[in-house]
Amino acid sequence: MLFRTFQQxxxxxxxxxxxxxxxxxxxxxxxxxxxxGAPALSRKADELAxxxxxxxxxxxxxxxxxxLAQLIPSREHWRMYPDFAQDALFxxxxxxxxxxxxxxxxxxxxxxxxxxxxxxxxxxxxxEAMAAKRLWVSFNGTCFDAPVLRDYFGxxxxxxxxxxxxxxxxxxxxxxxxxxxEIEDNLGVGRPPHLKGVNGWxxxxxxxxxxxxxxxxxxxFLVEYNLYDAFQLRTLMxxxxxRGADELNQDVPRLPVFDRGEVLYDVSKIILELxxxxxxMQTLARVRSQDRDLRDG
Length: 297
Known about the structure:
This protein is α/β, with parallel strands linked by helices.
């Protein structure tokens, strides 16, 4: 799809792009060279178009995602995904539900697998982990997740991706209605029974239960919930790309849709490895002491 994109040309939007395709100008290679035949847009516009397409081609050859993202309108950044899938980072966050919305659990999924960052454990390592990937994929992450993380870590420390595909807006354009979980259910990739109906406020309560009582089971449940929010985005990205290509009636290879079965073992492994920290044990000791006082009273 990227090689068939013309909306980086000034004055070319979705409808003009379709007109170019209908004229047989399917790819950048098809755009008429100077002095050959009738202009595709106009003589002046064609000259500018060739310049912009040349920059696009050079950026793709260099694998310069930032340059491509600056050329191509953000609403069409989903088209870049197949060419940069190895650089993709799928992520989601949970917060403490307070006014400042501090992140509590953040899950990442990339070509190396799953990664979890927890406040009070390893959250400080998150910016470096996210900076390692150039293409971010989220659901409402441009409006919520990324701003929350930027406020928490500070502008100077939190990275800026070379491109960020927000699937909330991509799926809306494709008429895939609802939030992330509703879309998952409609695609037949819903969550296991114990996670059905769990929402963002439940995530806040689970975190507070963990903080108040050192309840590691609450933390494990929260982490599992957040991990699904992250790796399910890979499936949704694949489906959305294929549907976008279908909508545009483009003869490009469709992506194999990610099978989450590949990571479910890793999810279980991460959850089981979440043991109590020294602070958790101190909390448990305090609660148990209070419980004994209550029984003695």
